[in-house]
Write a structure and sequence with these properties.
Number of helices: 5
Structural class: mainly alpha
CATH superfamily: nmb1532 protein domain like
CATH architecture: Up-down Bundle
Number of domains: 1
Strand content: under 5%
Radius of gyration: 17 Å
Distance between the termini: 24 Å
Order of helices and strands: HHHHH
């Protein structure tokens, strides 16, 4: 999908997050070995990615993309999905030892599914709307702002 250069960095981050979402959603090993071996590793990886990548990514989108589009339904959906993903992340990361491994695996899979849907929505609907709505000059300014963030 051709993307305006102003949105390259966000799309690039989406590619990496999508790969992680699919990893959460589609385990490579049988469920029994995933439960014992991979759930703790995936939980840790989710924490690393959420705290070091997704949190910053969401904040950048909210700071840079929302102004001027506050009443736009696609932008409202983006914000709602950010809140939903952050809430699910907190549920997974808060006191994970209180859940059995299967419950944690189910929550990780759900997070992967929601993250995948969110990324596909932004790439297929939100970003094209921004590219169609903003002028070339406005897109260039947006790109500069995103580089600074």
């Amino acid at each position: 999908m051709k993307r305006h250069k102003a949105l390259y960095n966000l799309s690039h981050e989406h590619q990496h997050a999508l790969a992680f979402a699919l990893k959460l959603k589609y385990p490579r090993k049988p469920l029994s070995s995933i439960l014992e071996e991979e759930v703790p590793l995936l939980s840790k990886e989710l924490t690393d990615i959420f705290e070091n990548v997704l949190k910053r990514h969401f904040a950048n989108e909210e700071r840079c993309l929302v102004p001027g589009f506050e009443q736009n339904e696609l932008m409202k959906r983006m914000l709602e999905e950010h809140v939903k993903l952050a809430g699910l992340y907190r549920k997974i990361s808060d006191n994970p030892e209180k859940w059995d491994l299967k419950t944690t695996r189910d929550k990780l899979s759900l997070f992967g599914e929601l993250l995948e849907l969110h990324i596909r929505f932004e790439e297929r609907e939100l970003f094209p709307m921004i590219e169609e709505t903003l002028s070339e000059d406005e897109l260039s300014k947006l790109g500069e702002q995103l580089k600074r963030e």
